[in-house]
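Hey, sorry to bother you again with one of my protein questions. There's a protein on my desk that I can't quite get my head around. No rush at all, and the record is pasted right below.
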Amino acid sequence: MPLALIAEDEPAIRLLLTEWLSRLGFSVATAAHGAEAVELLSQQDFDLLLTDLRMPVLDGMGLLKILSAMSAPPPAIVITAYGDIQNAVEAMKLGAADFIQKPFNFEQLDATIRTALRDGSRNPRPLSAGGQVDWSPELKDLLIRMHTSAVSESLLEALVTALDARESETGAHSKRVSQMAVIFGRSLGLDDTALNNLRRGALLHDIGKIGLTDRILLKPGPLSEPEWDEMRLHPEIGARIVSKLESLRPTADLILAHHERFDGAGYPRGLKGVEIPFGARLFAIVDSIDAMLCPRPYRASMDLPDVLKEIAARSGTQFDPEVCIHFLALPVDQWWRLYNPSEQP
């Protein structure tokens, strides 16, 4: 049975967290402050630490500093009040796996715990190579800035460039699908607010891949079923990331649902038909077009006529048939220039 430690000075919250973790199958120990937590950590190995920041005797920041000196510390999740977010980011720099704002909901807490345990590290990314995630210092800095400042367009562009660079064979995939999605959305009469949310959601649709290991993301051949299980987590990871940022929250539905299928065979929730948000149904087409038009290590790119035939063939299964009709009626020169600036289709 996995062992969790809760460091929290409020008895009611300690009790709530203890009951919840027990339901998840943890054996739970509790500490009323950081010093008590350190004593417990010295006596036995824990699989997970949940810690408040503001505690007497030794606060959460001091506890994390002590954890950083341990040879094999448990992954730590910071649970903090809204006014402590800046401190929570500082805690993540010390190695906390993630943070959750008070008042929290247990669904969010459950997902965060699962991610922390899957990563198996105090740090939000494993630092070693050996098939693990390998974020650049620039990408780490951008992610921190996303939590500590207003999300400007230049910051979004920089983040997306860094993400696309990691998955090098896709090139500027996120930028292309964002531009194509806006062209398509405008042709459907979406207003400026909806277009902006669509553009940003398309730009960030794969942001959840920052939580995947290089062993999965950069594998040249087919993925095994366990590897696919890990790959299928990225929409949920991405939606959770943007949901923490008020200005990006409207993009969460698209990010979460961008791998759903009209016939219900997609993931992560198996949504069907109009259960899938409209922006995600629109985006699914342009995302697939970009994948087919661009070469991959395991296959060549497809010709435009074959791509259009494939879109039509998947109408009603992968794609919303009404959205397909609108797309296939769109003059292709509007987006073909994204791939061939000097040519006509």
Observations:
- The first strand starts at residue 3 and ends at 7.
- DSSP finds 17 helices and five strands in the chain.
- The mean pLDDT is 81.
